[in-house]
Amino acid sequence: MTQIKILKMKNVILIAVLAITVYSCTSGNQNAVATADPHQFGVNIDSSANIDAIKATFTDLETFDTISYVKKYADTAVFYDNLRKTNLTENVAMLRQFQASGFKLQVQPKRYVWGSHFNFKDGTEGDYVYSYIIVNFTKGDKTVEVVNFQGDKFNKDGKVIEEFIVYDQTPIMGLMK
């Protein structure tokens, strides 16, 4: 009789181990978040149509293709060029002035470009693209490198409505002499 009890006990232990294993391996709520972080309201993105649009503006700058360039911006776009507020017409005029002055521009191949999507606490949303690039400005036989940080805000139509650009103008001014 004791051998039957031992056999039954082994079966009970085997069934218990099997049940625990099956239960612990089920997916359940593995991906559920217990509590949301009240300070998190956005995500970073490594590829999107908005990122592609900004990368395309780099080519537009290099070729001075202002027709293609303006297609990526809303008519009412506002630029903050080192905090100097301008509009799209003034921005394009500056590019044409660079071209007329004999400048050549080249955005170096090593670029850091990423996007963010925000769900703000006031219920609004925002899509942004950030760029950290180095631009070579060449005039004649002189070339200077200018580090440029740029932040672009997009509307629902995929057009830039605000652009913040920060860079040191000193090297560029040196080429204008």
**How many β-strands, per DSSP?**
8
Average residue-wise pLDDT: 87
The proportion of residues in beta strands is 35-45%
Quaternary organisation: single chain
The CATH class label is Alpha Beta
SSE string, helix = H, strand = E? HEHHEEHEEEEEH
CATH topology (level 3) name = Nuclear Transport Factor 2, Chain: A
Q: What's the gyration radius in Å? A: 29 Å
Number of helices: 5
State the CATH architecture: Roll
Largest sheet: 8 strands, mixed
| Overall number of domains | 1
Could you describe the 3D structure shown?
With 177 residues, the chain is of the alpha+beta class. It has one domain (42-175): Roll (Nuclear Transport Factor 2, Chain: A). Helices cover 36% and strands 37% of the residues. A hairpin with a 2-residue loop joins strand 6 (125-139) and strand 7. Residues 28-35 have low confidence and may be disordered.
Structure summarized in a few sentences:
With 177 residues, the chain is α+β, with helices and mostly antiparallel strands.
Short descriptors:
single chain; 177 residues; alpha+beta; Nuclear Transport Factor 2, Chain: A; 5 helices; 37% strand
Explain the layout of strands and helices.
Elements: H1 2-25, E1 42-45, H2 49-63, H3 66-70, E2 73-81, E3 84-87, H4 88-100, E4 103-107, E5 112-119, E6 125-139, E7 142-154, E8 160-167, H5 170-175
Parallel strand pairs: 2-8
Antiparallel strand pairs: 1-5, 2-3, 4-6, 5-6, 6-7, 7-8
